[in-house]
Design goal:
Helix content: 25-40%
Number of domains: 1
Number of helices: 8
Strand order of the largest sheet: 5-6-7-3-8-9
CATH topology: Rossmann fold
CATH class: Alpha Beta
Radius of gyration: 18 Å
Order of helices and strands: EEEHEEHHHEHEHEEHH
Length: 240
């Protein structure tokens, strides 16, 4: 039997990205391996969202190469992406998850029970028949995570998923993210919150002006930053 294809390791080799004459990413090289969550941090405009989109295959670099499990094609096999402001379909919460299952090719006869499992996983089982767009911001983000998990992802990309949430909703979303990580999903997430980075990160990547400025474990990043930019971020100073 042929071994199932994997999207890991994800390797960026000298990747650059330009848009409208502006340099968004500048010769970024890195590898994403299985393991604890990778947190992508940096000031606004550093290129975090663009890097995530390129990692997902939603955007093509203007320079360099990206490979998923050694393959150059960008068709997402087992990858999922959750945006900071997810788009909810004009359907019930359950129908939103069912849509994700359908897109992933999940067997029709099994979708009903799987929808229930996923909604329960994110704490929304009681909201199955509620219109998705009537849910609160935190509930919509949890629903977006359930819809992403419907793809049975190996790689889960999250673009500041708690940026607009209150502390209680943030905690609920973080618990789902940690649960996904503990189940073997590789989480790659953009964040600007030092507390969140400490709570979630296995490793930290610091982007500054489109360049990868520092990479290390969370302990290394916070306790012994090796660049002035990382030290400024840890202190809470402006990173320019």
């Amino acid at each position: 039997m042929r071994a199932p294809l994997s999207d890991l390791p994800l390797i960026l080799d000298d990747v650059s990205f330009r848009a409208g004459g502006a340099v968004i990413l500048d010769h970024v090289s890195l590898s994403i391996e299985p393991g604890y969550p990778t947190l992508l941090v940096g000031p606004n405009g550093a290129g975090k969202s663009s890097l995530l989109r390129i990692c997902m295959g939603l955007a093509r670099p203007t320079g360099g190469t990206v490979t998923w499990g050694g393959r150059p094609e960008s068709r997402p096999l087992r990858r999922a992406f959750v945006f900071q402001r997810p788009v909810m379909l004009r359907r019930s919460a359950a129908a939103n998850v069912a849509y994700g299952l359908r897109q992933a090719g999940y067997p029709r006869r099994l979708r009903g029970s799987r929808v229930q499992e996923l909604l329960d996983r994110v704490g929304l089982l009681d909201y199955a028949d509620r219109a998705a767009r009537s849910l609160s911001g935190g509930e919509q983000q949890k629903l977006a995570l359930a819809r992403a998990l419907a793809r049975d992802p190996e790689l889960l990309f999250l673009d500041e998923p708690t940026a607009n949430l209150d502390p209680a909703a943030t905690r609920s979303v973080e618990e789902i993210i940690l649960g996904a990580s503990h189940s073997g999903i590789k989480v790659v997430m953009a964040s600007h919150d030092p507390g969140q980075i400490r709570r979630l990160a296995g490793e930290v990547l610091l982007l500054v002006r489109g360049s990868l400025c520092e990479r290390g474990t969370a302990a290394e990043f916070f306790d012994s930053p090796s660049t002035s930019e990382a030290a400024a971020f840890v202190r809470g100073d402006f990173v320019l």
